[in-house]
Amino acid sequence: MTELHELTASEQVRLLAVGELTSTELAEHYLGRIERANPTLRAFTTVDAEHARQRAAELDEAGRPGVLHGLPLGDKDLTNRAGVPTSYGSRSMADFVPEVSDPLVETLDAHGAVSLGKTNTPEFGFPCYCENELPGGVARNPWDLGRGPGGSSGGAAVAVSAGLLPLAPGSDGGGSIRIPAAATGLVGLKPSRGRVPDGSGLDALAGLGVAGPLARTVEDAALLLDAMIARDAEGRPANRFTTAAASEPPRSYVEALRKVDRSPRLRVAWNTWTPWEPSYDIELAAEAIEAFETGLEAVRALGHEVAEFTPPAAPEYFDAFRAVWRGGAAGLPLDDAQLDGVEALTAWLVRSGRELPIQELSRALSALSAFERRMVAAYEPFDVVLTPAMAMLPRPLGWFDPHDGERNFMQQCQYTPFTSYVNVVGLPAMSLPVFQGALPMGIHAIGRPGDELTLLRLARDLEREFAWHERRAPGWTIAD
Predict the structure, then answer these.
(1) pLDDT value of residue 244
(2) Which of the residues 80, 311, 359, 363 has an alpha carbon 20 to 30 A from that of 252?
(3) pLDDT, tens digit, 9 for 90 and up, residues 324-360
(4) Which distant-in-sequence residues (6+ apart) come within 8 Å of 34 by Cβ?
């Protein structure tokens, strides 16, 4: 008999909707798996079983609303849920319990989510790996327990990849959804800036950070994207924006995905360009090249027009992005005494950010705005642009320098040099796990402004070719 966690999230929702499955049954099933596997995998920093059981019972009694119908998920430990500890991945915040939930939490709850706890994240979400110093150990990749799952949505990726959750929300300010998705064999979608009202990026410095889904299947990613978009009584987005997501989204990404069985012929560009060169030495591992070529060949075989296109050089990007990243860290509520107790990367980001002259930060923001305009124009002729998802295999635990914050930052850019510029540009992008080796590797698909649907349809077609949703990490059995 098929176990509940073997079903896709969409299949679980259908059973919930027709009453063949209860929220309580599903929550208990996943809580049991988490209890058995979390001591090893450390997907969760907090397991909130009591509130999860109460919430599931209430939904079973009163009715299961929205598109999730009582489906379990986890809140990333950068997201506040009232009454539940939120550590932000830092020992300095280990005792913090918010009194008010973030809007995204409320939106997902309104769509019938049942939160089982807080998923692991690195300190304040800045690193692209998930090795914080909280008690309980670091997050481990279900494909190889000696390697990390990427970050910053690393715990969410571990939970979905190991069958501890059917899907999970994440956030992405420089690749933090796409990197862990690539490292753990999942689908990870970074929506356009402005697409998800409660994680739009519009209130973030340089508009970098947005909320999006991690899932095992493309339809599941579309399902969670639907739940993340707050809608009015008539099904329209509750908030309209005039930036990268100016186009109206479909009433349902899931329904729109199902309406078209196959993508029309697309104009697809590819490159291995990164604005981090030549400032940093960027080398592609053999596995990254093989995954990329595998993905390109599959796209060609689907009948799409594929051509190489390399954007113009962007010499201003290196200094500008580093300035904005450090400037964003400067606002963390940490005094000098607390800075002595945080990780080296955080201390370097905060201290150097607070030393930035305001003129330098202003110039950096202007430079990134100009970079955005140039890149949108350069990619405008294409429906999709493909790049590698990562330059290296998932990194061994302890690989990133724990003592030198600036060197650590460089290592992160060398590991994942293709993701951050898409946050700057505000375009939608997906990580797709096409490589079928011993460890996951993926390709990175970048879409037009506001056009998540084309990415989802192309991803669905590739999913049929590679059947990545049928592959299981060795760590999947830890919870059995």
Answers:
(1) 47
(2) 80
(3) 999 999 999 999 999 999 999 999 999 999 999 999 9
(4) 43, 44, 47, 116, 117, 159, 164, 479
Q: Confidence class of residue 383 from pLDDT cuts 50, 70 and 90?
A: very high
Q: Which of 78, 68, 77, 76 is nearest to 107 (CA)?
A: 68
- Residue 293 and residue 284: Cα distance in Å, rounded? 12
DSSP string, 458-475: HHHHHHHHH-GGG---GG
Catalytic-labelled residue, pool 10, 92, 101, 176 = 176
Which residue stretches of 380-476 are H helix? 405-415, 420-425, 452-466
161 is catalytic: no
Round to whole Å and give the CA distance between 10 and 75: 19
Q: Helices (DSSP H) in 331-357: which residue ranges?
A: 336-339, 344-354
DSSP 8-state symbol, 378: H
CA–CA separation, 40 and 45 (whole Å): 12
Averaged pLDDT score across all residues of the chain? 95
pTM assigned to the model = 0.97
Which residue, 140, 127, 223, is CA-closest to 175? 127
Has 152 been annotated as catalytic? Answer: yes
**Catalytic-residue membership of 153:** no
Q: If we measure between CA atoms, which residue out of 166, 186, 156 comes closest to residue 79?
A: 156
What kind and span of H or E run contains 258? helix 253-259
Q: For residue 395, which of 412, 370, 417, 372 has the smallest C-alpha distance?
A: 412
Contact residues for 364 (Cβ-Cβ < 8 A; gap 6+): 319, 320, 321, 323, 324, 327
Residue 89 in tokens:
């991945």
Whole-angstrom distance, CA of residue 307 vs CA of residue 133: 45
Question: In whole angstroms, how far apart are CA 377 and each of 316, 368, 467?
Answer: 17, 14, 34
Q: Please tell me the chain's helix, strand, coil percentages from 3-state DSSP, rounded to the nearest 5.
A: 45, 10, 45
Contacts of 35 (CB under 8 A, 6+ apart): 47
> Of 10, 23, 76, 200, which residue is the catalytic one?
76
* Cα–Cα distance, 252 to 231 (Å, whole number): 11
